[in-house]
UniProtKB/TrEMBL annotation:
It is found in: Nucleus. It comes from Temnothorax curvispinosus. Keywords: Methyltransferase, mRNA capping, mRNA processing, Nucleus, RNA-binding, S-adenosyl-L-methionine, Transferase. One of its GO terms (cellular component) is nucleus. CDD domains: AdoMet_MTases (cd02440). This is mRNA (guanine-N(7))-methyltransferase. Residues 122-305 form the MRNA cap 0 methyltransferase domain. It catalyses: a 5'-end (5'-triphosphoguanosine)-ribonucleoside in mRNA + S-adenosyl-L-methionine = a 5'-end (N(7)-methyl 5'-triphosphoguanosine)-ribonucleoside in mRNA + S-adenosyl-L-homocysteine.
């Protein structure tokens, strides 16, 4: 029994020794290979290498960062970049705006001049009368305020933006102004406005002839939302006491630059203490009227489906 135990111990000792030698040789081989690889690499690449599994997330993260950077660069607002795509977008916006401008001008140019009797037969005659009353009240109220700081007989210069066919000429005549600038996008409408003014000047039996001459006037065909009107004045240095834009200012809200241009035209020629008055539709009332109609149409469409 003792002899067998001694043999077993001897075999175990040999196995342990063999295993340790194997591990030592493997370690030495791995170390030598690592040393060779390290020597072959440049000093810049002697960094701690990661396993493929650990290297992959860093590469993915790097790619994601690059994609985010590229997407961020393309998401900059068009007014702050000069890339080709943004230039194309700007050109498209300009073309669309030009198309809308032409549509508005063509619409008003196509409207026929009708006499008073025909206008009284219109379906919206009462709304027109109401609008005229509003304009008359506004003009009278603020003309009085402008005259409060003036001496008797002082000149009163006015600009009527989006004047149309001159529906407010009589109002300006009653206000006893000295000079009027009429500006409108529709050339035909402006020509009709000028013809109305000429008829007022040349009207026989007028109480103004020989006593208080009617105001002088100039006429400008231009889009008030895109063109600097002051540059088209007969006297660009002229300062105005009063600027009016009646039921047309909402056209400028097509874009921010147009609204800014409209406001600049309204304000840059005003004297200190002058007034700008304007009227626009009430958006809340329009939505209040429109929503029930939209609900009815949607309900019909859903019932058909």
């Amino acid at each position: 029994m003792s002899a067998l135990r001694a043999e077993d111990k001897a075999e175990n000792e040999e196995e342990r020794q063999h295993a340790s030698e194997t591990d030592t040789s493997c370690t030495t081989t791995a170390k030598s290979e690592t040393t060779k690889d390290t020597d072959a690499e440049s000093p810049q690449s002697r960094k701690c290498k990661l396993s493929p599994d650990r290297e992959r997330p860093s590469k993915v993260a790097k790619r994601d960062i690059e994609e985010d950077a590229s997407s961020a660069s393309t998401s900059v607002p068009s007014d702050l970049t000069t890339s080709g795509s943004n230039e194309k977008d700007k050109d498209a916006d300009v073309n669309r705006t030009l198309d809308n401008t032409a549509l508005v001008a063509d619409h008003y140019n196509a409207l026929e001049e009708k006499g008073l009797s025909q206008r009284n037969q219109s379906r919206i005659v009462y709304m027109r009368n109401f609008n005229n009353w509003i304009k008359s009240m506004l003009i009278n109220e603020y003309v009085v305020k402008v005259r409060q700081g003036k001496s008797f007989g002082a000149s009163l210069r006015v600009m009527d933006m989006c004047c149309g066919k001159g529906g407010d000429l009589l109002k300006w005549k009653k206000a006893n102004i000295s000079h009027l600038i009429c500006a409108d996008i529709a050339q035909v409408s402006l020509e009709q406005c000028q013809q109305r003014y000429n008829d007022m000047v040349n009207k026989k039996g007028s109480k103004d002839r020989g006593f208080a001459p009617i105001f002088s006037a100039e006429f400008i065909t231009a889009d008030c939302t895109k063109v600097r009107l002051r540059e088209k004045f007969m006297d660009p240095s002229m300062q105005l006491d009063f600027v009016s834009c009646q039921f047309s200012f909402h056209y400028s809200f097509e874009s921010l630059p147009q609204a800014e241009c409209m406001l600049r035209n309204a304000g840059e020629s005003l004297k200190p203490g002058g007034y700008f008055i304007g009227t626009i539709p009430d958006a809340y009332d329009l939505v209040y009227v429109f929503l029930p109609l939209l609900y009815i149409h949607l309900k019909k469409d859903l019932s058909k489906g």
